[in-house]
Amino acid sequence: MAKTSVDINTEQMERAQTILGTATIKDTIDAALRRVIAEEARERFIDLASTGCFAELADPEVRRKIRS
């Protein structure tokens, strides 16, 4: 893990801590980074799903085979 010094806007940090429910700067930054990464993963999934690549999962026969 890297240690870095940065200037942080105190008001933004306090607001982020309230939103994220975190108590420390480190926890807030970690939580914010996790959220950014998760949001990007959601966007990639939505893009992938919009291509129709999961359409066959609506077929009851395919779903039955997956569950077996």
Please, how many helices? 3
- Quote the average pLDDT: 94
By DSSP, the count of extended strands is: 0
Largest sheet properties? none
Radius of gyration (CA) equals 20 Å
State the distance separating the first and last CA atoms: 43 Å
Overall geometry: elongated
What would you note in describing this structure?
This protein is mainly alpha-helical. It has one domain (10-67). The protein contains three helices and no strands. It has helices spanning 10-20, 25-49, 60-67. Helix 1 (10-20) packs across helix 2 (25-49). The protein is elongated and about 55 Å long.
Task: Summarize it.
It is built from 3 helices and no strands. With 68 residues, the chain is an all-alpha fold. Helix 1 (10-20) packs across helix 2 (25-49).
